Amino acid sequence: QVQLEESGGGLVQAGGSLRLSCAASGRTFSTYTMGWFRQALGKEREFVAAISWRNGLTYYADSVKGRFTISRDNAKNTVYLQMNSLKPEDTAIYYCAATRFQSGNNVKEYEYWGQGTQVTVSS
């Protein structure tokens, strides 16, 4: 029983930056891991980054290491994804997700999902 709402998506030129936010409400005290996934048109949903809600341990997909940073603000029940050096290949709908368990990069491990926010990177 967790609600997630993403914001911060938009249109940006290649090389630019965006910061996505995911505000969590409901039984947030039950969550352990929060993550970001993305899904491009016609492709499978893929892992981007994850963070432990309680201790801040982070995980990243190889494709975004060094460019994206996931962070948290526990007081605001919010997780962020800072995206720098954006590429056209990053264009996708970005989803925030959460689970009560210690999880990593597997879509099936996440129980709660936001509605997504569109990120478009122009060439």
DSSP strand count = 11
Q: Largest sheet, if any?
A: 7 strands, mixed
Shape: globular
**Distance separating the two termini:** 40 Å
SSE arrangement, N to C: EEEEEEEEEEE
Helix-strand category = mainly beta
Helix content: under 10%
Point out poorly predicted stretches.
none
Number of helices: 0
Mean pLDDT: 94
Radius of gyration: 13 Å
Strand content: over 45%
Written account of the structure:
It contains no helices and 11 strands. It is mainly beta. Strands 2, 4, 5, 6, 9, 10 and 11 form a 7-stranded mixed β-sheet that branches. A 4-stranded antiparallel β-sheet has the order 1-3-8-7, with no helix packed on it. The radius of gyration is 13 Å and the shape is globular. The N and C termini lie far apart (40 Å).
Task: Tell me briefly what this model is.
The chain is an all-beta fold. Helix content is 0%, strand content 52%.
Describe the protein's topology.
Blueprint: E1 2-7, E2 10-13, E3 18-26, E4 33-39, E5 46-52, E6 58-60, E7 68-73, E8 78-83, E9 92-99, E10 112-113, E11 117-122
Parallel strand pairs: 2-11
Antiparallel strand pairs: 1-3, 3-8, 4-5, 4-9, 5-6, 7-8, 9-10, 9-11
